[in-house]
Amino acid sequence: MDRDKLMSQYFFSSLNRQEQELFAKYLKEDPEFLKQFVTESYVQRRLYDLFVGQDNQKLLFDSAVLQSPYEMDLWAALLNEEKTAPTIELEVSKNEPVLIEKLQKQKIVRKSSKTTLITAVAALAAVILLIVYVQLNPKEFSDPVATLADMVDVRWADPAMSLKRGDRLFTRQGGIQLKEGILKIQMDNGSNVVVEAPSEFEFITYDQIELRYGRLYANVPRRAIGFIVSTPNSNVIDLGTQFGVKVNIDGGTEVHVLKGKVSLIAGKQSEEGTSELVQQGQARRVEKGQEAIQAIAINPGAFVRDIDSQNHYVWRGQPLDLADVIGGGNGWGTGQANTRIDPITGKLAQRMEPDGIQRTTPYILVPDLDFVDGLFIPDGRAGAVQVSSEGDMYEGCPETTGRCFYGPFNGSVLPLKTANEVFDHTVQIGGQTFGGPGRPIILLHSNLGITFDLTAIRESYVCSIGYLKSRIGVADFQEGHPCNANFYVLVDGQVRYSLLHYKQKGELTDISIKLEDTDRFLTLVTADGQGPNKSGDDLSGRTFLYDWCVFAEPVLVLGE
Amino acid sequence: MNSEKKIEEIAVYWTQAQSIVSAFISSTVPNFEDANDVLQSVAVAVVRKYDTYDRKSPFTAWAIGIARNEVLHYKRKYARDKHIFDDELVNKIAQTYHEKSSELDDMKKALEKCVSKIEGRWKQILQMRYVREMDAKRIAQCLGVSSNAVFVALHRIRLSLRECIQKTMRAREFGSNG
Q1: Domains plus CATH for chain B?
Q2: Mutation site, B145, B161, B165, interface A, largest A CB count within 10 A
Q3: B30-41: per-residue pLDDT in tens?
Q4: N or C: which end of chain B has fewer CB within 10 A?
Q5: What is the per-residue burial (b if ≥16 Cβ within 10 Å, else e) of A496-516?
């Protein structure tokens, strides 16, 4: 057998018993081969020191190569090509391998982490003190690897635990047991981890967490590829992705991949266990004491993906509710129901003022709501209409009466005015009540436009926005009176969607509009389909009066 | 000698010897984490036994001797399989490390120069091998490719590095002679 290949197998893989004996025989009997082995094993160790040691920072992370897009699939394809490269053939033994590493891994007790030694390599005078310290205090020795970024309703299992926001977290400090609440952890390698109680976890290295039980969600950037979540019976190796890991109290493991892919290795010894590449949208389970990987249905809502204690925000992937935003909320139910934005002042108001409002100001800012940029009355008779605070213009805006009622409304009970009487009217569509919990709406009686600031949402929640989804139609009010409404969705002043001359009350049409990361302003517009009033100010008989336009269940789908 | 001066002296010696000592350990204990544990034990033993060190002999040779004992101790304690590196072979490897120590030290710069030339996917595969400490099989599992493809890649990198180091050292030798 080729001695060079044998040596590579020794360094990079495994030798079966026969190959081990042969390798040892060569080393014993051939002084030149022994010298070559010594030289090459020195090279192997130096490579490790260079890559892992302080030189590593310069060697790897400043590399322009790693700043370029990381094409894992391309890389895999290139490696496969290498397999058929003609000049070198390295055989994989078909015999049962006897793994040296496996045998040596029988020892579990470790005195210090890998980075302990890196420090030792780097710091000359500290080296001995460090080693002596480790020797004397093996359990206390640990490295800082992460920061506790945020926490919600936390109760620790250990009453003496007093971690707080901003505290550094260390390796090998024993398991952190969370009895109640949620933690958000920012790891030094750039990964974000959210842990939900009840759970116990421990940092093993700068890129490995052991989850003993509970739920953990990891969002791993490309530069931290290789991040590992180990559980009692599996290892999950990240390949640049977002995934959740759930460990039942009995030790069974579930992995749910929401984005990218991970490598799931069942069984604690990777050489013994089975493994599988788990792709986006897939989930797998490994039962306690087993190495078989079972496919299960993905449950994207099972994991808390982000928290913000200041905004009372716990995000499990649910979409952001724009109706709640209009009610002054954060998009997750903190807004007030039956609230509108006054189209004259741009302020939140409880009472409805059911008088017709004429367009006087081109664009009304809404400074009190972080995610609402402003309002306007669409009327193209005087040309393009301003639709954002940055001056985006809506060219081709339809000509309308230039009037509106009420302002954007979030809720279910509308104080509707008929003649001189005002009475509460429940918003219904097709006989079903809308505007309450579970069926939020934005009531946007024509003619009205509202613009949301997508950048503010992205920055606030550190997420991408994938889609606007909603169901549009006209509410059942004032049966017998015909409506005729136009709906538009604009992005940065450009029409992305329109539905014209909608005359059927009580029906809803689903819309789904893809949004790009570069999109800044999202505008919803309703306009009367009948056009401008040709008989002066007399509004009687105008269909526009009955255009009770609704954007039902209006949401932004985040993180896709 | 006061303890402060002693620690300073050991630190200087240790810094010079560590790359050879750690390479020797890694040659017989291929898993880097395990090798680091042994290295740590060696460092502790070096401190404890420093008073027995004869300053007339090379420190590296003395430290390799301690490392050899720690490796043998480790193998007896943890490795059930003793076929590949028995005591005789560990002694031979330790002896060869001692003989080649200055040559290996000379190789350091050439190696660093050659490593700096590695780019792109090869640098990334080295990162998985040395930073993530994955063996070829595990890298293959992660990438969804065959183990053989990863073997070939690592083998090629190894041969290329060897050639580069030899060329670099020959050029340096030629330069210094010329």
Answers
A1: 1-106 (1.10.1740), 117-178 (1.10.10)
A2: B145
A3: 788 788 888 888
A4: C
A5: bbebeebeebeebeebeeebe
Per-residue confidence (pLDDT) for residue A354, from 0 to 100? 56
CA distance B55 to chain A (A): 19
Asked if A290 and A335 sit in the same domain, the reply is: no
- Which one-letter amino acid corresponds to residue A174? G
Instruction: Identify the band that residue B176 occupies on the pLDDT scale cut at 50, 70 and 90.
Output: low
pLDDT, residue A95, reads 38
- The answer as to whether A126 is a domain residue is no
ipTM: 0.94
B159 to chain A: nearest residue by CA?
Answer: A4
Cα separations in angstroms, A92 against A6, A225, B130: 10, 27, 21
Test B15 with A34 for CB contact under 8 angstroms. Answer: no
Q: What is the pTM of this model?
A: 0.53
Q: Which of A4, A24, A110 sits opposite B37 (nearest CB)?
A: A110
What tokens does A40 get? Answer: 């090459």
Top residue of B109, B114, B142 to mutate, by most chain A CBs within 10 Å, is B142
In a domain, A532, yes or no: yes
What's the confidence (pLDDT) of residue A181?
Answer: 95
The parts of chain A modelled with pLDDT lower than 70 are: 53-142, 268-273, 351-357, 359-360, 416-419, 533-542, 560
Domain match, A350 and A476 both: yes
Q: Verify whether the Cβ–Cβ distance B44 to A60 is below 8 Å.
A: no
Mean pLDDT of chain B: 83
B18-24 average pLDDT score? 91
Which band of pLDDT confidence, cut at 50, 70 and 90, is reported for residue B1?
A: low
The position carrying tokens 């490598």 is: A263
Residues of B in contact with A107 (CB under 8 A): 34, 37, 77-78
Spell out the SS3 assignment of A453-492. EHHHHHHHHCCCEEEEEEEEEECCCCCCCCCCEEEEEEEC
Kindly report the backbone phi and psi dihedral angles of residue A442, in degrees, each rounded to the nearest multiple of 5, phi listed first.
-110, 115
A153 with A80, same domain: the answer is no
Q: Give the residue carrying structure tokens 């047991």.
A: A177
- Residue A30 phi, psi dihedral angles, 5° rounding: -120, 100
Considering only the beta carbons, identify the residue of A8, A117, A135 that sits closest to B151: A8
Range of the structural domain that residue A474 is part of: 318-558
Q: Are residues A274 and A343 in the same domain?
A: no
A246 in Cβ contact with A302 (< 8 Å) = yes
pLDDT of residue A417: 66
When divided into structural domains, chain A yields a total of: 3
Residue A155 has a pLDDT of 93
